[in-house]
Amino acid sequence: MKHKPSLPYLLLLPAPALLVAILYPFLTGAWWSFTSYRLNRGAPVPNWGENFLNLFSSGEGLHAIAITLGYAVVVVVLECLFGVGLAMLLNYVGRIGNSFRLLIVLPLLLPPVVAALMWKVMLTENGVVNWLLESVGSQKLLWLNGPDSALWSVVLIDVWIFTPFVMLLAQAGLKSVPKELSEASAMDGAGPVRNFISVTLPMLMPVLVVIVTFRGIDSLKMFDIIYTTTKGGPVDATTNLHVMAYLDGIRNLNFGAAMAALIVLWLLCYLISFFLLKARRKEAFS
Q: How crowded is the C-beta side of 254, counted as CA atoms within 13 Å?
């Protein structure tokens, strides 16, 4: 009974402890981004934004930003198209789709690094994919070793792994669409395409916002699949901001430049979640 008045404060202790554990590394990294800190050259020396200026003025930095944004857009669009399409197909076939659903979600059971290594072996010059292409009379492709094809190969791996995630969420959203609306739309003469655009898609929008937010953020900061398969190469064909930060910080020990790239990456992730959720809130209250 004596300790009862202080119990609420004791219960609150984990919250400020967690806040400090999050903010201290973040603020330290933010400070390093404004310094020329190298691990092998002593204490950080302020350079007041030179890292950001170099990032946005150099060809390598602009290329990494373009790869980061382009990769995220292509991956999210393809996964949404395939995921929603598969969800609608499985709903259409009914109980038969349950067995197919188990097969489709198998990529989600693999860690991304393991899946990337598996695809890396299959996409080698003498791998099974090129063997299949040769068996149908086509030529071998460079896949992960070609400057023009490496990024698309990584996109293929990402889509293969995470499309089941989109499919599961989309299927859950489709379950919430009232059948009465679709039936009423069909009675009014709407075909399948018009029914999807006018009835199903608006009802799916809350789920799609969640999907785009999660997959957009994950795609912007993609590292494991890219580094496992190409290490940012060939040359810098697949070097996004996350890989660039790793190469600067871990290989070159240039923590200042690495943290500047990561701060820009954090801002991109924050902006996409902020504007998507804001647009969703505005739509919900309108």
A: 13
How far is residue 217's CA from residue 72's CA, in Å, rounded to a whole number? 8
Span 34-78, pLDDT tens digits: 999 998 888 889 998 999 999 999 999 999 999 999 999 999 999
- What DSSP string describes 186-245? HHTT--HHHHIIIIIHHHHHHHHHHHHHHHHHHHHT--HHHHHHTTT-STTTT--HHHHH
Of 155, 191, 138, 182, residue with least CA distance to 82: 155
Query: Which residues, listed in sequence order, are joined to residue 38 by a DSSP beta bridge?
Result: 254
HSE (side-chain half, CA atoms, 13 Å) at 12: 6
What SS3 state is found at 109? helix
- What is the pTM for the complete model shown? 0.90
